[in-house]
Design brief:
143 residues, 71% helix, mainly alpha
Length: 143
């Protein structure tokens, strides 16, 4: 089981996918974790998420992004971030596809979420890549 989680295609391209997704999601997680009480309340009252789901969103957007950046348990973290983005996309459907660049919409579209989901899927398929902790752990396990 651990082999399947850590196994990677050893490509260099995965580092760009990991860094792009992690650097994009980490600020969202940071804002949520540093304003934990207010965000928990907002996720539960405005988005009607249960307490546990709200907690998972906050924790995995922050810590999952850090682990993804490092390439530790890449597939698991990419999957969790992808699932969070799928859920978030549904809350943005009413605002259309596009990001609200000019402030002319009532909210943000789901364009950002769709891109994050695509990168997550690519990482689930490929793994952490050549320069990941997953790759290092797999090499040590095989020695």
């Amino acid at each position: 089981m651990l082999y399947k989680i850590l196994n990677t295609d050893n490509t260099v391209s995965s580092i760009f996918l990991r860094f792009s997704l992690a650097i994009t999601i980490l600020p969202h997680g940071y804002l949520k974790i540093t304003n934990f009480t207010n965000i928990m309340e907002a996720l539960q009252s405005h988005y009607h998420l249960p307490y546990l789901i709200s907690l998972i969103v906050i924790v995995f957007e922050f810590f999952g992004s850090i682990l993804l950046f490092l390439g530790l348990f890449t597939r698991i973290n990419a999957m969790l971030i992808g699932v969070i983005m799928i859920g978030a996309a549904f809350y943005h459907l009413e605002h259309g596809f596009f990001i609200n660049w000019f402030g002319t919409q009532d909210g943000e579209g789901y364009q950002f979420h769709l891109l994050a989901i695509g990168v997550s899927i690519a990482l689930i398929i490929s793994g952490g890549g050549k320069w990941s902790i997953d790759s290092i752990l797999l090499k040590k396990k095989n020695q």
